[in-house]
Design brief:
heterotetramer; A alpha/beta; B alpha/beta; C alpha/beta; D alpha/beta; B: alpha/beta; Fumarate Reductase Iron-sulfur Protein, Chain B, domain 2; Rossmann fold; four-stranded parallel sheet; 28% helix; globular; D: alpha/beta; eight-stranded mixed sheet; 12 helices
């Protein structure tokens, strides 16, 4: 089972990201579960969502306290207390930033991969919505699901031009991170 | 055992099992009460009843309803002073219903369309009765006796029936064609009319009493009352009624330039109007009474019909009300003037009325004729044994003459008479009394039932509507014998009938049916046996009294539960 | 076929499969996604029905009541304050014996204001006379919603399908959505014997005097007791049709001979099941889930508790000043057993407090280390309170 | 004189053959002279058999349906005090979904309409349900024993607006519900009075023909609550109209399109004097006189605002007239 925690802000599509990832997994024949850490937050406030992917039915419904991976939808969130809490030893952190991994790594002291997802989103979508770029990068890094699974998940959610733009975005994002960099870690969790 | 339904639902209309009538302490009842027009009619017509029939398009039934009391509606519709209209409750709302116009319309319609009187010819072996005098009282008595199944012989001293109507009422008020038609139709209904049979000359009372089971005497008043001023009379004195009769039978009239007529009754007014028609320039009526009008008590007003008085004034007749003649001014034996004085009837503390002459109010008026029109009395020829030198007979209210079983009297020959409709009423009552007499039954007094008052009606439900008026001849065209007042046309008559408030009678307005919160009033045109169109379902009537309060006609009253 | 669906979305699809003719709802977190999804199905023409956007939950319940008696299958959903605002109507619906299905997206009841999950809302109206079924996961929410219509319409009782707010309603997971053919085969068209009809008019909602009121109440009580058989039959028939059983009245998993058992309602069962697998060293434990809370499944509960010496009853609500609502009812039911288990009654996860996996060992430790206490809020942190409130 | 009504056929048969639709049967337990019972009877009569009724808690509900009895011959449901608008909305939605043309009527008193049920009513109107909502306005909570409502007129005495040293009955004004209702921009809203049954009938028929929400406010005297003889219920209602205190008006989409004109407005004292609830206004007291003047001013304001005082045909002449005609022709 892989447990992922996604940190973002209200309005960034944090829950959508979690749902897309779990949907991709379920459509690939895995078991998946995604849910937000529900809050009454408004646009801009820090929010959290969770994804579990497993090979057997998931029954637990508690929050992901010890994620294997963290996806952080903007760098400023790293300063929010608790964002990095509970990351399993050897776990990976994917951060949306235009800074390089080394710079961020100094800040968080762990295995960090960075992706200029907002920039990429602005380029390809015309809007600063980084979530699909980050998912693409995450799948590229872990290779737990083929990129095609994300494509299909996006096809369920989007149509037309916006779908095309998203597909170009995830293609571009996947080029930005080292493929299979977290593959070993992902497989070690039993996914 | 009642079984609970799922969710406690109930079936439709099951509340009928609960008889809310047990809550009642008062119950509504339908109570027919006379309308004031009915009580006021001397002839006994129930105007409310026939107005209702005409309003629903049943003209012939309406006429039949009239003739069940008065067989002469075309006549009374013209000449009656219609106290019904004075009594009409609608008069307190806007204007009284024009009842006489409807009566006249129906009478004329009957003549025009030949509606038969609802009587059948008497059986050959039916008992015989005699009626003396073919004026309105005698005609009425004969008709009602015919209705009761008797063979009726009607005697009159004149060649034609009609009595006062023929002799004293000018044709401009009652065209002869109408009189002839109505009287003729009535006689043709089965009355054995024997003309030119004068009592004391051609037949005797004793013979009549011998040949007939009962006798109704309606001889009228054929004898002039004595008249003088302090014993003085002009040599060429003419009496009003005689002049009238003469004018109507031979068309002659005295010549004069200024005439004073003494009296306040119909004869005085008719006399005055005829004189005007005959070209007399100045015609005065001098009367003790007041001009009728608002606030004038009935016993102080001129007895002539108010509309006739008004028409007379329109025609130039000058009326001097509250005046008496103090003195005749004579030159030789001819009159050249009268001295008048103001006078009034004043009520004494004990209620009686006294004529008071006011000194210092004397005035003199030059006239060349003085015509008394102060009334007649019964001519006792052939009747002396019954009259005992009295001016009038004194029968009981039903017309029976005390001490003379089988003899009944009515019309002008009894005191207080003087109107055609009263005479018609006398005839009807007399006929009923004769019938009871012949059947060996005790006489039955009329039961006086109080009429429905204005305050017992609910006027919220009536629209204000102007009274329909018949055309009237302008004064300048009133010449000769042409009838002055026209009749209502059919639409007008029906509209007038619809103005009737139906006092004391159900006219099926649906108010009680519509307004009962308990649906305890059921509508049934055919099934209600009490004259209404509704029945109370006392199983559910809670006795709230709403129906009684909202009945427009005062037909529902609340009574305490027994 | 399994699809990735958010719980609310899955419930909306299940509702649509039941072909309701009138839907009335007022939005409240966390029920909103359900009614939004239904509104979208209606907007897209995928569900043909009258969707009445009422001005309050009170009217939502009233509209479906009016519609149901007028002959239409109905649906509504609410949560928390919304359920309480409905409560007068809920009693009225049940007392009128009208078949209505609603989803309660369980949420705490303020004050203090909380939008998060517990079951205080449905527990507060447990006496309204509705059938209450609590779901463990979203698949069960789907299947139970469909079963609920059949149960409601056969028993002429309203059914409240209780689904933990957020925990289920906002969780995306794989769902096997039944086909329309399956649902049509299972659920006949709506029929309500007392449908208001101008051709056969009846009066509903009458005044009942003391002469009959106790009988009316008894009848309602008896109807709920009798409904247990319909709940069992609905699940059995559904299982025959789809291969999925959702646990009838009481669902039991784990070793039948276990002397320790944990009893819950709703979605927390899944977390406990995973934790139990993770901790075989803690011995055999039986997990008991009350799927039906009304009617209260006393008989099935007693069977499930056979051989149990320690029974942990977990509450997602409480009766302040009284204690555990479920605990009290369970204890009352166990009173008839010859050797009833000791009952350890805890409230957990109030107001959305996460129920972590380690609650399992902690609960078992508590059972072993102490004699039963009447009732406690399990994860309460007393040092957050002023001294007098601890 | 007849003291019993005689028929030649059984009265039960006669009852069954009445030439009108009978929506509410006899045997209900309304007080003597109940205006509400009458109004509901008139409304159902005019609305006809193809209707379904949602009825709020209140006198009408209580007195018509003490189980196992019901006075209704129509499909009828009582749910609660405050949800009638919503129950009716639900019925309407269901009938619409089933493609049925049965019209839904909602009945409530002034408490269930002006006050506690106002929200559900407003929602129903806003959503455009095809429902005729009829409010039987007897101007207080009569079912619970005469407590004031927001419909209770100014200065009226109720058990919760009593008269005492410091008070002359209700301090506040009667809520202008019709204006509020009309502000929902509904196709038809009107006031009516039991004193004018033809007018009620006309307005009900009109509402029945409209596809959409309509509202009828019927002034329905309560002999118990107003303190008048039950026989005077109609008289009192009529005077309320004729004094201008209860104007009969019609509104379409919020615009005034018709009124019952008053040719000769009656002084409000004619109306008030008949009712115990205003008896304190006839004491020799300067505050009482002031309140009488106040009520007269309110009536005059209505007359002026709605243009009631006119020389147009008076109510007796106009369409919907309650002029009686021989043979019940006004119902023709």
């Amino acid at each position: 089972m892989i447990e992922v925690r996604i940190h973002g802000r209200g309005g960034q599509g944090n829950v959508v990201a979690a749902y897309l990832l779990a949907t991709a997994a379920i459509d690939e024949g895995h078991f998946g579960q995604a849910f937000p850490a529900f809050g009454a937050e408004r646009r801009g406030a820090p929010v959290v969502s969770f994804v579990r992917i497993a090979e057997r039915a998931l029954r637990r419904r508690n929050q992901v306290l010890q994620p294997d991976f963290l996806i952080v939808q903007d760098r400023a969130l790293l300063k929010v207390p608790g964002v990095l809490d509970g990351l399993r030893p050897g776990g990976g952190i994917l951060v949306n930033t235009s800074l390089d991994a080394a710079t961020i790594g100094e800040q968080v002291g762990s295995a960090v991969v960075t992706l200029p997802a907002t920039q990429l989103a602005k380029t390809h979508l015309g809007r600063p919505v980084p979530n699909t770029a980050l998912l693409s990068a995450f799948l590229t890094l872990t290779q737990i699901l083929p990129m095609d699974a994300l494509t299909k998940a996006l096809e369920q959610k989007f149509r037309g031009d916006i779908l095309e733009r998203n597909l170009r975005l995830i293609e571009a994002a996947s080029q930005h991170v080292p493929a299979g960099h977290w593959k070993e870690r992902a497989h070690a969790t039993g996914a | 055992m009642t079984e609970l339904t799922r969710g406690a639902f109930a079936h439709p209309g099951t509340s009928l099992a609960f008889k809310t009538g047990s809550w009642r302490v008062q119950l509504p009842v339908h109570q027919h009460r006379p309308a004031p027009c009915h009580n006021a009619c001397p002839a006994g017509e129930d105007a409310q009843a026939y107005l209702g029939l005409l309003a629903t398009g049943q003209a012939q039934q309406a006429w039949e309803t009239i003739v069940s009391a008065n067989p002469l509606p075309a006549i009374t519709g013209r000449v009656c002073h219609h106290p019904c209209e004075s009594a009409c409750n609608r008069g307190q709302y806007d204007e009284a219903v024009g009842i006489h116009g409807v009566e006249r319309f129906l009478g004329d319609e009957a003549i025009r369309l030949g509606w038969a009187y609802p009587v059948s010819r008497p059986a050959a072996d039916a008992r015989k009765v005699a009626v003396v005098g073919a004026g309105p009282a005698g005609l009425s008595a004969a008709y009602h006796l015919l209705r009761a199944g008797y063979r009726v012989s009607l005697f009159d001293s004149l060649p034609e029936a009609g009595g006062t109507c023929r002799m004293a009422i000018p044709p401009y008020r009652l065209p002869r064609s109408v009189l002839d038609a109505e009287v003729g139709r009535l006689l043709a209904a089965g009355i054995d009319f024997r003309a030119q049979q004068q009592l004391g000359r051609d037949l005797s009372l004793a013979e009549l009493r011998q040949d007939f089971g009962a006798v109704f005497l309606a001889p009228g008043t054929q004898k002039n009352r004595e008249w003088s001023i302090d014993g003085a009379v002009p040599r060429d004195l003419h009496v009003g009624l005689d002049l009238l009769k003469e004018w109507m039978t031979v068309g002659s009239m005295i010549q004069a330039t200024s005439v004073a007529i003494i009296g306040g009754g119909n004869t005085a007014v008719d006399m005055a109007r005829v004189l005007r028609r005959c070209g007399v320039p100045q015609v005065h009526i001098i009367t003790h009474e007041a001009l009728p009008g608002a606030g004038i008590p009935a016993d102080d007003a001129m007895r002539a019909i108010p509309r006739e008085i008004a028409q007379a004034q329109e025609e130039g007749v000058i009326i001097h009300p509250h005046r008496g003649i103090r003195r005749l001014i004579l030159r030789g034996e001819r009159v050249v003037g009268v001295e008048m004085v103001h006078m009034k009837k004043l009520r004494r503390p004990d209620g009686s009325v006294e004529r008071v002459v006011f000194e210092g109010t004397e005035t003199v008026m030059h006239v060349d004729q003085v015509i008394p029109a102060i009334g007649q009395q019964v001519d006792d020829t052939g009747l002396a044994e019954l009259l005992h030198r009295q001016a009038f007979f004194a029968p009981d209210p039903q017309g029976a003459l005390s001490g003379h079983p089988g003899v009944f009297v009515g019309g002008d020959a009894r005191p207080g008479g003087g109107s055609v409709s009263a005479a018609v009423g006398d005839g009807r009552r007399g006929a009923l009394a004769m019938d009871r007499f012949l059947r060996g039954m005790a006489a039955q007094a009329d039961v006086a039932v109080t009429a429905v008052g204005f305050e017992q009606l609910n006027l919220n439900y009536f629209e204000s509507a102007p009274r329909g008026e018949a055309p009237i001849l302008p004064p300048e065209q009133r010449k000769g014998q042409e009838e002055i007042e026209g009749g209502l046309i059919a639409n007008q008559a029906r509209q007038e009938a619809e103005r009737c408030l139906s006092c004391g009678n159900c006219f099926a307005c649906d108010n009680c049916w519509t307004l009962c919160p308990d649906s305890a009033v059921l509508k049934t045109t055919e099934q209600a046996a009490d004259g209404s169109h509704y029945v109370f379902d006392y199983d559910y009537c809670k006795g709230c009294g709403l129906c009684a309060k909202e009945c427009p006609c005062g037909y529902i009253t609340m009574e305490d539960e027994a | 076929m399994r699809q990735a669906l958010e719980g609310s979305q899955a419930i909306a699809r299940a509702v649509a499969l039941c072909r309701p003719q009138v839907i009335a709802a007022y939005p409240i977190t966390p029920q909103t996604h359900i009614v939004e999804n239904i509104a979208k199905l209606v907007a897209d023409g995928k569900l043909v029905c009258e969707y009445v956007s009422v001005e309050s939950e009170f009217s939502a319940a009233s509209v479906v009541l009016g519609a149901a008696v007028a002959g239409s299958r109905t649906y509504t959903a609410s949560a928390s304050q919304g359920i309480l605002l409905m409560s007068e109507v809920l009693f009225n619906i049940a007392g009128s014996r009208v078949p209505i299905v609603m989803t309660c997206a369980n949420r705490a009841v303020g004050a203090p204001l909380s939008i998060w999950n517990d079951q205080q809302d449905s527990m507060a109206v447990r006496d309204a006379g509705w059938i209450q079924l609590y779901c463990a996961d979203n698949q069960e929410a789907v299947d139970t919603t469909i079963q609920a219509y059949r149960i409601a319409e056969r028993t002429e009782l309203p059914v409240m399908v209780c689904v933990d707010g957020f925990t289920l309603t906002h969780t995306l997971e794989p769902i096997d959505v039944p086909s329309q053919q399956q649902v049509d085969a299972f659920l006949p068209p709506y029929h309500f014997a007392r449908t208001l009809d101008p051709m056969k008019p009846i009066s509903m909602g009458t005044l009942v005097s003391p002469d009959f009121y106790p009988e009316a109440r008894h009848s309602h009580h008896q109807a709920l007791l009798n409904a247990a058989a319909e709940i069992v039959a609905a699940d059995a028939d559904w299982c025959a049709l789809t291969g999925r059983s959702q646990g009838s009245l009481v669902q039991v998993e784990g070793d039948a001979d276990a002397s320790v058992a944990i009893l819950t309602l709703g979605s927390v069962i899944g977390t406990l099941a995973d934790a139990r697998e993770m901790h075989p060293e803690l011995g055999t434990v039986k997990l008991i889930r009350l799927r039906a809370f009304r009617p209260f499944p006393s008989e099935a509960l007693l069977q499930a508790c056979a051989g149990v010496t320690d029974l942990v009853v977990l509450e997602r609500a409480l009766s302040p000043g009284g204690g555990g609502i479920v605990g009290a009812e369970v204890k009352a039911a166990l009173f008839d057993m010859p050797n009833p288990p000791r009952v350890h009654n805890f409230a957990v996860g109030l107001g959305g407090r996460d129920i972590p996996l380690d609650i399992y060992p902690r609960l078992l430790q508590a059972v072993r280390s102490q004699s039963p206490r009447p009732f406690a809020v399990f994860d309460v942190e007393l040092d957050k309170l002023p001294a007098e409130d601890r | 004189m007849n003291t019993t009504s005689q028929t030649t056929i059984p009265i039960a048969d006669l009852r069954r053959s009445q030439p009108r639709f009978q929506g509410i049967e006899s045997g209900h337990r309304a007080c003597l002279g109940c205006g509400e019972a009458l109004a509901a009877r008139l409304v159902t009569e005019a609305a006809g058999p193809d209707v379904m009724i949602a009825n709020a808690t209140g006198c009408l509900e209580i007195f018509t349906t003490p189980w196992p009895e019901s006075s209704w011959r129509l499909p009828w449901m009582h749910s609660l005090f405050e949800n009638t608008g919503a129950i009716a909305a639900g019925m309407e939605a269901a009938l619409k979904a089933q493609g049925k043309s049965t019209k839904v009527l909602a009945f409530g008193g002034d408490g269930g309409t002006f006050d506690i049920g106002f929200q559900a009513l407003s929602g129903m109107l806003e959503r455009g349900h095809n429902v005729l909502y009829v409010c039987y306005d007897n101007e207080a909570y009569m079912n619970t024993g005469i407590q004031r409502s927001s419909s209770t007129p100014h200065a009226a005495m109720t058990t919760t607006s009593p008269v005492g040293r410091d008070r002359m009955g209700k301090r506040h004004l009667k809520k202008d519900i019709l204006s509020i209702i009309a502000s929902h921009h509904i196709p038809f809203a009107a006031s009516a009075s039991v004193a004018y049954p033809s007018d009620i009938r006309k307005k009900v028929r009109r509402a029945m023909e409209i596809e959409g929400p309509t509202f009828l406010l019927i002034h329905s005297p309560c002999p118990l609550g107003w303190g008048h003889d039950g026989a005077l219920s109609i008289e009192v209602a009529r005077l309320a109209v004729q004094s201008g205190l209860f104007p009969l008006i019609e509104l379409e989409r919020g615009e005034l399109i018709g009124t019952m004109p008053l040719r000769q407005p009656r002084p409000v004292t004619d109306y008030l004097r008949l009712q115990q609830r205003f008896s304190h206004l006839f004491k020799d007291d300067s505050r009482a006189r002031e309140e009488l003047e106040h009520l007269q001013a309110l009536a005059e304001r209505n007359i002026e605002y709605y243009g009631l005082n006119s020389n147009r045909d008076d109510p007796c002449d106009s369409e919907g007239a309650d002029t009686v005609r021989r043979g019940g022709q006004r119902w023709g």
